Amino acid sequence: MLKYIPSLTDTVIEEIPERVTLAVEISNCRGNCPGCHSPFLRDDIGEELTESAIDKLLGGNFGVNCFLFLGEGSDSAALLSLARHIKSRWPGVETAVYSGRDKVEDEYYECFDYVKTGPYIEALGPLNKPSTNQRLFYHRQDITSRFWKR
Q: Domain ranges in the chain?
């Protein structure tokens, strides 16, 4: 089971380049990044994220073209199943996941259009800093530099 925090679900335009993104905060985070902006997401809190909940979220957010799982939670089978549901039920919506791990399984690249890897390391900064250790991939291609102002 995957849990999310409904009150933190928001439409954003900066998390995924050139996409209107529905960002959903996933709890039960397995990471322990110093300087984490949302340490409460390590806890087992929130509501179950189901196919029905996703359909309601996407149905009520006209113009969204990307669904972002902000975190993996503790049930990767449920996460991958929900990503597959979005792809089959919402063909115009791309999928994205933010993982705090350095590497993810190949199946993630098959289920998600966008995959962010790497734990947050405060001294290296977030994606918009060229010094970051984090990477954002689009169909396995590293597009992290799109966040850097030139």
A: 3-147
Q: Say if CB 126 and CB 120 are below 8 A apart.
A: yes
Residue 99: pLDDT above 90? Answer: yes
Q: Model pTM?
A: 0.95
46's CB contacts (< 8 A; 6+ apart) are: 3, 4, 5, 6, 25, 27
Distance, in Å, from the CA atom of 97 to the CA atom of 108, rounded to the nearest integer, reads 9
DSSP assignment of 42-80 equals: GSS-SEE--HHHHHHHHHTSTT--EEEEES-TT-HHHHH
